[in-house]
Specification:
This protein is mainly beta. 0% of the residues lie in helices and 60% in strands. It is built from no helices and twelve strands. The protein has strands spanning 9-11, 14-16, 19-24, 27-32, 36-40, 50-53, 56-61, 64-67, 76-86, 90-96, 101-107, 110-120. The strands form four sheets. The chain has a four-stranded antiparallel β-sheet with strand order 4-3-7-8, with no helix packed on it. A four-stranded antiparallel β-sheet has the order 5-12-9-6, with no helix packed on it. Strand 3 (19-24) and strand 4 form a beta hairpin. It is elongated and about 60 Å long. It starts with 8 loop residues before the first strand and ends with a strand.
């Protein structure tokens, strides 16, 4: 199996795909080819543009696990930006009983939706 082959493989009658653990904007994600991710807003990325992430911490390619120290050399994840959107509203409510103190605060996180095109190991 070549390093660029993202096809699934079988082991003990289970179907496995190549995956990687990658750090994107300070968060770690497990990515597979074709998977959608919602990450913090990337203001510099336009819709339809390709984005490459080279902070790959681990790669599992057909059962051969490569762990970086701290990063895997030459590995990168190629993604495509689908859209920019906002997450669901989160309500933060503070209350102190018997004191008449109540405070309600809302927050919506700005997100970017990306699709993983390929993992290059």
């Amino acid at each position: 199996m070549s390093a660029r082959d993202n096809s699934p493989y079988r082991c003990n009658n289970k179907l496995y795909k190549m995956y990687a653990i990658v750090e994107i904007l300070g968060q770690q994600f497990k990515v597979e080819a074709g998977r959608k991710l919602y990450i913090h807003r990337m203001a510099e990325a336009d819709r339809g543009s390709k984005v490459e992430f080279d902070k790959v911490l681990l790669v599992d390619n057909a059962g051969a696990v490569t762990v970086g120290a701290p990063l895997v050399e030459g590995a990168k994840v190629v993604c495509e930006v689908v859209s920019h959107l906002r997450g669901d509203k989160v309500l933060v409510f503070h209350k102190k009983r018997r004191k008449g103190y109540r405070k309600l605060n809302g927050h919506r996180q700005d997100l970017t939706e990306i699709v993983v095109k390929e993992i290059i190991a």
